[in-house]
Design a protein that fits this description.
The structure holds two protein chains of two kinds. By secondary structure, chain A is mainly alpha-helical. Helix content of chain A is 74%, strand content 0%. Chain A is built from nine helices and no strands. Chain B has helices at 2-25, 50-60. Chain B is elongated. The chains are: A mainly alpha, B mainly alpha.
Chain lengths: 190, 61
Amino acid sequence: MGLVSLFIGLTFVNNVVLSKFYAVCPLLGVSKKPKNALNMGYAVTFVIFVASIVTYVLYYQVLKPLKITYLDLITFILVIASLVQFVEMFLKKTSPEIYKSMGVYLPLITTNCAVLGVALDNISAGYSFIEAAVAGLAVPIGFTIVIYLFATIRERLEIANVPESFKGTPIALITAGIMACALAGIAGLV
Amino acid sequence: MNLWAILWLALLVAIFIGTYILNKNTPKPEGCEDMSECSGCNNFACSHHSAHHEEEIKDEH
């Protein structure tokens, strides 16, 4: 039950995008088409899941025994950057279509603060290995759901009669705010 | 203790450089040669901002 609560909590209630404002850059940048948003979500899911496991193991098996835990931030940044390079190389070889649809946003996963945020939160929250793995899965799934929903709403907003001064990013940010209010309503369930 | 920290950092940097070089040497799929332009946000400092892309095109001509 604890793991289920953790999963639902991190996916919906404490959604990193809408409650902590991590990963707002890809949320605004890659949410113009639902297909691209979904592809971004898949790539982020893979990177966050692998990064959270790798960083957790490195922290407790390398940094802590060597008493160099003060290097956690730079270690996590370099591990995430290397992982993104690896994912980019993998997609270039195996899925040119996904690579093309993600375009410039793929290398920008390196600067997606949700990836680093999950890795650091796993350590600061004192999660066990299983809990860190669940968090590494729940957070990007929450990100994918939000970015996909956001992309579908933005697609409809393109043809909606929005006042001139609200067109583009302003109405997108207002939409994100309303979505955050809606997800906060699930707080009582878990 | 500092020696471990230096060695650890050197290892991480070496891994990053290794993956970067491997990625750089992997040819891009057809039609993806020039994808550096991005209009996602208005951060002019970002090297992917479309304004920098326009400057590059002007310089080429």
